[in-house]
Amino acid sequence: MRRTRILTAVLALAAGLLSGAPTALAAGPTPVKIAADTYSWKNARIDGGGFVPGIVFNRTEKNLAYARTDIGGAYRWQEASKTWTPLLDSVGWDDWGHTGVVSIASDSVDPDKVYAAVGTYTNSWDPGNGAVMRSANRGASWQKANLPFKLGGNMPGRGMGERLAVDPNRNSVLYLGAPSGKGLWRSTDSGVTWSQVANFPNVGDYAQDPSDSSGYASDNQGIVWVTFDESTGTSGSATKTIYVGVADKDNAVYRSTDAGATWQRLAGQPTGYLAHKGVLDAKNGYLYLAYSDKGGPYDGGKGQLWRYATGTGTWTNISPVAEADTSYGFSGLTVDRQKPGTVMATAYSAWWPDTQIFRSTDSGATWTKAWDYTSYPNRENRYTMDVSSSPWLTWGANPQPPEQTPKLGWMTEALEIDPFNSNRMMYGTGATIYGTENLANWDSGGKFTVKPMVQGLEETAVNDLASPPSGAPLLSALGDIGGFRHTDLTKVPSMMFTQPNFTTTTSLDFAESNPNTVVRVGNLDSGPHIAFSTDNGANWFAGTDPSGVSGGGTVAAAADGSRFVWSPEGAGVHHTTGFGTSWQASGGIPAGAIVESDRVDPKTFYGFKSGKFYVSTDGGATFKESPATGLPGGDSVRFKALPGGKGDVWLAGGASDGAYGLWHSTDGGTSFTKLSNVEQADTIGFGKAAPGASYQTLYTSAKIGGVRGIFRSTDKGASWTRINDDAHQWGWTGAAITGDPRVYGRVYVATNGRGVIYGDSSDGGTTGPGPGPDPAGACKVTYKVTSQWSGGFQADVQVTNTGTSPWNGWSLAWSFTDGQKLTQAWNAEAAQSGSTVTAKNVGWNGNVAAGSSVSFGFTANSSGTNAKPTAFKLGDQSCTVA
To answer: Which residue intervals define the domain CBM2 in the entry (predicted)?
Structure first.
């Protein structure tokens, strides 16, 4: 079940998509209608899907917690709904690396403040430096301090930490541990400016693989955690004692006892290991340390747990298992702030048969395990697992003992007991956040229940998307967890694609005139790299690989599903009739070409490689190079043929040092015309035509009119409307995009770490604003303030149709009495005039059946008092207030 994080963004970097200025255009850009349409944005629910290396609870405010992901941003816990809210969706295209979060810190003095150290790679894959983001409103908005070095949210060692810490006594002081030999850094002005701690004696020396020429595994993992001893300071004065962990097996822990003026290696410390975590129990005077022989998150074969007595300097090996009996390192580490002496740790790199969690209630003198053998291979668990909310976490597996499904986890480097609730624990895995709310059962002899606590946290790298004209509205190709068939975008699918279960799906396609026929290709350690479905992706069967295939590549289905063309890794382009039992090499097209099919003619296929376009009219047996010139020279190109239009092809891609933009062909690729009003484009997709339009709607992730964003055209590219906004950018969105052929305005956007985003338009959708509820109807409103901070708040509103007739569109109005000012809203089109706020439905949520509810949320500014509205009107009707 090992899941390796796919580096999707490398595709863009290899072609230089993210550097430099826009290319020169043949003509001046056509003006763009910016924000002419209001879109609501959501995730197609998967719930999780990626590695969560850090969970941080605030130490002074209940229920305030944050999670960080390696490529998908940061999240804040919402206690009322038991969900996570994304906080870094405003990160834009040019700063895509800032979606990787290497550390997060919540201020215990001022809980409204939160900090995130961001940057995805320290090698050349990420062209930008890292930064420290700071927020005074719990992540609702951010300011940025750029750093003179890179940070590695997706680098080896990313589960160690936390590298970023706020002084619990003088919260204007922060420390940051840097990788790559850049040392220890400090801010004394609440993260606005940073300077290196010049006298810190050790920048670290451990690299996973010093011989790695890419710079990925050979990077020095540097300074890996900072921990304050809050008992050595008073409010307003800098904490005296600070512990720092360094990626150096012989010199792993340093300490300052004079607020960072001087530093010394901690005497008597164990050697031969890396200290992944250092967690202080100030009440008992113990610093607990979790050690591994490797930096993680995948590797680690030996480890130990140690306890350091801060008062006496005594070191005690408290390892729950003898080193000779381990095949893993330790990393996840937490103490119970309500019950001093209770400590827990994880065997983070125990891949087989399962991870292990250890618990001690006597400061590490004795331990119990989450599971143990009765008689091998049989296990007895102290826990039960309930993954009914995310059933795909079983992976559809049927393992033999001692393996079980679902697994307790893997890559379990984040482990936290709620500092205010001894019963609640959360831990991160390579695919989700698990948690329990009856942890005390561990000690009483009962079983505690482990469930996914991940709703709202969507972390998948998306490689391809398809929205067939019938059947499921969305099929996805994902990194690490393969992909899903969504029959309902608001619900978690029961299982990812299986039979076979690719670790990463690289490409998928369906037959345009027979959408029940679907094909996907992907990566698998052993086994076939292609699979077929005859029921719209509900069930699958494996095909047969041509000789030499090593990876998925791209695949195309004929318009009628009668044949397929496949361009796999490790082998040249091949074609077959039927379902891939006998492949033949295609002629006239180079290996590694991107392949697509004409959506009308079942014998026409297209290819692209290194600036050249290729066409086959004999079912993929032979291709001919098109005479078209002026196309992008690199391979960072995505193209598609228009459904219903024979020979109608759109091509997007390029690089800033050459041709870059959007091209259109109406003669099957013989010639292409570049659109002069598109400066850069990286994806192209089609959706249902606008009302009154004859041509399908175009969607692209592009730079148009000098603005990077998601754009829509309803007039064949003559004019464009930006449909996202600066708060909804999601970093790099260059992998795939598609509209929905059944719902005008709906678009699906691939992200590199924030899952599948879909947007619905308020501009002429299928269920636009109507006349409001029936005059004889009735309504009920529930208004909840879910989060408050100095100068602002967030609220959720639920409107219930308590009448007997459905609503076809709705408009809710209320007044603020304390001068509150609306700043943004989601799932509703909201505006404010004076004290009156009006929230109207967006396109997709206008129809509300009798007895059903609709919800939306918003943020607003406030000053001091924040009284809740006491009266709401839906159209002309007054609503009951719950």
So the answer is: 772-882
Catalytic: which of 167, 248, 480, 648? 480
Task: Give the Cα separation of 147 and 333 in Å (integer).
Answer: 29
Q: Please report whether residue 413 resides in a domain.
A: no
What is the distance between the alpha carbons of residues 50 and 752, in angstroms, rounded to a whole number?
A: 11
Tokens of 100: 């990787």
Determine the pLDDT at residue 33.
54
Whether residues 194 and 88 share a domain: the answer is yes
The residue among 781, 779, 846, 788 whose CA lies nearest residue 820 is: 788
Q: How many CB atoms lie within 10 A of CB 4?
A: 14
Phi and psi torsions of 93, nearest 5° = -55, -50
Provide the domain limits for residue 833.
779-881
Task: Indicate whether 766 pLDDT > 60.
Answer: no
For residue 384, tell me if it sits in a domain.
no
The confidence score (pLDDT) of residue 19 equals 27
Phi, psi for 848 (deg, rounded to 5): -125, 110
φ/ψ bin of 592: left (φ > 0), alpha (ψ from -120 to 50), beta (otherwise): left
Nearest to 167 by CA among 104, 108, 225, 117: 108
Q: Which of 220, 245, 266 delimits the end of a domain? A: 266
- The answer on 678 and 563 residing in a single domain is yes
Residue 833 and residue 726 share a domain: no
Q: Is the peptide bond before 500 cis (omega within 30 degrees of 0)?
A: yes
Residues 730 and 794 in one domain: no
* DSSP string of 571-632, one letter each residue: S--EEEESSSSS-EEPBSS-TT-EEEE-SS-TT-EEEEETTEEEEESSTTSB-EE----S--
Same domain as 810, residue 737? no
HEC readout, 507-566: EEEEECCEEEEEEEEEECCCCCCEEEECCCCCCCEECCCCCCCCEEEEEEECCCCCEEEE
CATH of the domain at 838: 2.60.40.290
Round to the nearest angstrom and report the end-to-end CA distance of the chain.
46
834 located within any domain: yes
Together in a domain, 732 and 846: no
Q: Count up the domains in the chain and report the number.
A: 3
The domain that holds 645 is classified in CATH as 2.130.10.10
Nearest-angstrom CA–CA distance, 334 and 422: 12
The pLDDT value given to residue 772? 35
Whether residues 706 and 794 share a domain: the answer is no
Question: Do 685 and 589 share a structural domain?
Answer: yes
Peptide bond into 297 cis (omega under 30): yes
CA proximity to 769, closest of 812, 804, 711: 812
Structure tokens at 26: 């043949």
Answer yes or no: 560 catalytic: no
How far is residue 403's CA from residue 39's CA, in Å, rounded to a whole number?
45
pLDDT one-digit tens code per residue, 709-737: 999 999 999 999 999 999 999 999 999 99
User: d(Cα 447, Cα 466) in Å, to the nearest integer?
Assistant: 43
Asked if 480 is an active-site residue, the reply is: yes
> Distance between alpha carbon 349 and the CA centroid of its chain, in Å?
22
Q: How many CB atoms lie within 10 A of CB 690?
A: 19
Residue 793 pLDDT grade (very low, low, confident, very high; cuts 50, 70, 90): confident
Instruction: Point out the domain boundary residue: 242, 266, 290.
Output: 266
**CA–CA distance, 663 with 732 (Å, rounded to integer):** 21
What is the SS3 assignment for 111-149? Answer: CCCEEEEECCCCCCCCCCCCEEEEECCCCCCCEEEECCC
- Is the residue at 295 inside a domain? no
Residues 99, 130, 480, 357, CA torsion sign: negative
> Could you give the percent of the chain with pLDDT greater than 90?
85
